[in-house]
Amino acid sequence: MVMDRAKAGVAVEIKQQKRPDLVAEEIKRLITEKDLKPGDRLPREVELQALYSVSKSTIREALKSLEVQGLIKVTTGPNGGGMVVEVPLDRTLQLLQNYLFFKDVTIDDIYTVRKLLEPELAAGAVPHLTEQDFVALEASIACCDRPASGHGVGGILKQRQEDVNFHDILAAANPNPFLRFSCELINEMIRQLIEFRNDTPESEHQRFGEANVKIHKAITRAARARDVEKVRELMVTHMTEAPRYVKRMKGKLRGRLILDSEIRKKLRTRSAAPVVDAEED
Fold first, then answer.
1. What is the structure's pLDDT at 257?
2. No. of H helices and E strands in the chain?
3. Cα 214 to Cα 218: distance, rounded to the nearest angstrom
4. Model confidence, pTM
5. Could you report the per-residue pLDDT of 158-186, keeping only the tens digit for each?
6. Cα three-residue angle 257-166-153, rounded to 5 degrees
7. Which stretch is the leader sequence (predicted)?
8. Pairwise CA distance, residues 29 & 119, whole Å
9. d(CA 246, CA 197)
10. β-strand partners of 73
11. Domains in the chain, please, with CATH?
């Protein structure tokens, strides 16, 4: 295709990769070929220099690029170097949100996808749920099954966070890694990208919470009975009803990019999230 355009006299720009980028690609190849796992260390800088016949600065730029991508963690000192890490969910969310910033994504869009994925996620998790999982599900429900009045907005939003956590527990039990990742990513979007107006009546939050508690209890009972089809049916109902509550609560997507510092702050203070936090389910 490029050759055809060149023959036609159309200017074709061929982008040349910088040397650090090429080395970063080679290090990715090394990780794959050696089947390195999170926690495994890369060869030392001096070894990488010799392996790729490049300068120390080139190696360091390549490692920094991979660190920014979330693939490795670089430490300094005598025993420093690169270590393979699992790409964190918040880094993936940041990249996705950067992309969605230029798209017209609505709450209805998010819940349309959830309605397709969450029932299959929950149904697939049922055979794999352990007693420990059920204890966690019931603890999440118990957190929301008590009046939040008297604890201010923070108490209400903590319960909305627990509504999302309920779905994360189900996600963790599902053996399909891609489905699990997709749902966890959406859950994180809900935590970080959906906010409510300050004048949303507390009664609307309570009404939403009560509805969540009711359906979560029903899902948990059906899951304990290992009734896969009932769990799927209940989750469809849940994902159909939830966006109606969100709209009544004047929920909306954030209209600006999330900074890395904001993500880190939210991860540290999730249990006491400020007014701009998630809704959900």
1. 53
2. 12, 4
3. 6
4. 0.69
5. 787 889 999 999 999 999 999 999 999 89
6. 60
7. none
8. 37
9. 11
10. 83
11. 2-84 (1.10.10.10), 89-272 (1.20.120.530)
